[in-house]
Amino acid sequence: MSVADRLAEPFDRGGKGSHPIGLTLLSGAIAAAVLSPLVWIAMRVLQVDTEYARSILVRPTTVEILLTSLALVAAVTGASILLGVPLAFLTVRTDLPFRRFWTIAVALPLVIPSYIGAFTFVMAFGPSGELADALAPLGIGSIPSIYGFWGTTLVLTLYTYPYVFITTRASLLSFDQGLVEAARTLGTSRREAFRRVTLPQLLPGITSGALLVALYALSDFGTPSLMRLDVFTRVIYVEYNAFGRETAALLSVQLLAITAVILAIESRIGDSNRGAYVGTSPKESETTVSLGRWTAPALGFCALVVCLCLVLPIGILLQWLVRSPEGATRIASGFRLEFVLNSVQVSLAAALVCAVAAVPVAYLAARHRSRLAELFDRATYVGYAMPGIVLGLALVFFGVWYDASAGGISETLLGSNVAPGLYQTLPLLIFAYVVRFLPQAVGATRSSVRRVDRSLTEAARTLGRTRSAAFRRITLPLIAPGVIGGSALVFLTTMKELPATLLLHPTGFETLVTYIWGLRESADYGAVAVPALALIVVSALSMVVILSQEDNA
Amino acid sequence: MTRHVHDERSAVSTDRSAESTREPEGDPVLSLEGIARSYATETALSELSVSVRDGEVLTLLGPSGCGKTTTLRLVGGLERPDAGRIELHDDAIADADRGGFVPAEERDIGLVFQDFALFPHMTAAENVGFGLNDHSKAERRARVEELLALVDLADHGEDYPGELSGGQKQRIALARSLAPEPDVLLLDEPLSNLDVSLRVSMREEIRRIIDETGVTAIWVTHDQEEALSVADRVGIMNDGRLEQIGRPETVFERPASRFVATFLGRAGFLSATVADGVLLTEVGELDADALVGVERSDWGALSEEAAVDVLVRPDDLRVTPTSPADADGTITRRQYQGPSFVYRVETDGGDTVQSLHGHTEVFDVGESVRLDLVANHPLVWFPSA
């Protein structure tokens, strides 16, 4: 091509930081798809008679559900802070023995889905559980019930405090102890320095962890259902199964509204977080707090937490596994390898789709700092914040509506309904997973794109490579670890996803999760052991992948 | 007291506009005409015109934000000009008015990045060979070996960038840019990411490599010593404009503007008034022929009693302690630099000048001093602001 030809080319302004049109359209389409469930819920609610809607929303049981949900969120969040912050402090700033071990051990409960934890707690402390059996010969006939508010709070706290632990730990690690020394030289006491310097620096970290816990507690479906606490998620599911779909839709909107409030608080915290001072690497040895005679109680505290979160549930599951030959045969008859393959299959599909969808959104957000790019990036987070039960319900509405419409059109045009259905099909289930977990892939991908210096692709271009060749040869290999890490996270979370799976899995398509769920009323806890342990092992393996990705980065 | 300052270069024309005719000969390879570029709110470049001749090393020197890196990015094709035209070998590669633009990958212009921008997932040899996509495998290997030898890193071809030292990364980056035999090589502050101790040897090494390949180069820097020592010609940029361009010694000795005078080396100004063909300063009279550019057109335009400022560098002046009655000014600061002292003197008339002395000539701050002009070269003057 001659220079004159090139000069005749239209002067596109792509190089001036404006959006590449193709990439922008692609990102926009992905964002729209992820946002669509909100539309389905809204459409369904608008069909409900206004008077009926009002009567549902103000009836006493609805108010009670609201209050119970809020109380659960508050209790779990408060308790998680009480567990997570001291543990973070102990593992970062003190001379606690075996700190490295405890750091990993107290973060590990993230690997165990909370409903599996709830299962084992019911096994251990329920009316016919291990503890009751052990105490019965001693003449103690009844123990406080594990069901209800406090049991739910306990279990949720034990499996969500790691969020507070991890964010607080990060704040503590990045906190520059030199700031406290500066404050002391400016005449403040140790206590005052803590209040005026340390605390404001740590607060954003603690708060962001606490908000994650609050969102989890509000949206968790499995634990309250197993522990028989009537919060939004449980009631929505019950109503849905009792054909109270309108009530379920109305409650879903209420639940979404509360979620939105928590998110609004979080985004404000996120803004103030930007002002946080990031110091130079802290000189650990100089500022470590010596525990002295508090060493034993501190060790005891860590050990207790780890016992309750990890040793107890895994111990119970292992015990059930080996206990009786009778149990073993029942496991063998009820459990099939197919469930594992099904779980792995849908999770892999979700991870793959997320990886592919995350790259354009993340690339646009990382390379083109504009409102539109940020909007698309943020939009992918909506599905993440949406409680799984609400998402599942929204896609049920969509599937049913689509099947009816497509069937209708097909019959009108062709005389018979030959349109492929969507409701309770694998594509819809996988789409639900993608909507829920795409942000995990987007987040990991976006930060890895940001780590690839712009000058690397510019260097490739001055060396004769086109924009797309530079992307293939330079950007893609360098962001691959981030994309794979994000997808591994999607795989992990999809494997243990409960509510959307329950609502959307095709009939006869059993996964580990639906199988475990089916056993909840049977009191046949021995049969839970194998799939539950399998889930924990898969989760743990994925966590290993994620950690190794972080090490490479 | 009249001081005669001898112009040793009086034989050469002192008309600054004519200087360019004395520069090294060579056809222009690259030329920028009326280039302007602005970002959201600020203007990075306005009306920049410059041409680079075949085989020369042109350094662009200026404070940060002066537009020198933007100039490189425009030439490299990483940015588009808002106005103006860039030509490479008489072909337009960017023309804002006619709307033409040759993308970076089709320009045959190499760029050495400030942070080296080595691809971390490729070995040094793979980095060097990256731009050789049109070559056969054997040709490519031979060329890579040749370049690794050129930059003295023949044994490091299999190393990854993470395993190389700063200076080695710099050499690999240079080799990578040179591998496709670019028409023009651009260097963006190539030494700023290196240890200070390495910079002097590295800049000589880079100049050697450039000379060996004979490539035409534009070298951007904010370090005046670097700019003056490696350049065939140096361009001083400020605020998006080219203030002056010429041989390093010309630019240093005959700055075309106050900015250039103060940016290169230490500068003091003595205020003076024109009277009867001579300049009256606080430290005595200066004959008009002691000045650069007396034939300058604006000299004739200066009316009697017009105010001008004469540029005096620290080595042009000497101070001698004296009684306050005979004094021209007072020492206000003393800077010890090891082998020498630089004294800052505030004259009675309010000018601030500096004077360079050996380390044995110790005077105190507050001492009254007489000032003597000892320059053995013509002095530069500017109309008073």
UniProtKB/TrEMBL annotation, chain A:
Keywords: Cell inner membrane, Cell membrane, Membrane, Transmembrane, Transmembrane helix, Transport. Gene3D superfamilies: MetI-like (1.10.3720.10). InterPro entries: MetI-like, MetI-like_sf. Signal peptide: none annotated. The chain crosses the membrane at residues 21-43, 63-89, 101-126, 146-166, 199-218, 247-265, 298-322, 342-366, 378-401, 421-438, 474-495, 525-547. GO terms for cellular component: plasma membrane. Pfam families: BPD_transp_1. The keyword Transport applies. It is a multi-pass membrane protein. It is found in: Cell inner membrane; Cell membrane. Its main location: membrane. Residues 66-266, 340-546 form the ABC transmembrane type-1 domain. The keyword Membrane applies. Belongs to the binding-protein-dependent transport system permease family. PANTHER family: FE(3+)-TRANSPORT SYSTEM PERMEASE PROTEIN FBPB 2, INNER MEMBRANE ABC TRANSPORTER PERMEASE PROTEIN YDCV. This is ABC transporter permease.
UniProtKB/TrEMBL annotation, chain B:
Keywords: ATP-binding, Molybdenum, Nucleotide-binding, Transport. GO terms for molecular function: ABC-type tungstate transporter activity; ATP binding. Residues 1-29 are annotated as: Disordered. It is found in: Cell membrane. Residues 30-264 form the ABC transporter domain. The complex is composed of two ATP-binding proteins (WtpC), two transmembrane proteins (WtpB) and a solute-binding protein (WtpA). This is Molybdate/tungstate import ATP-binding protein WtpC. It comes from Saliphagus infecundisoli.
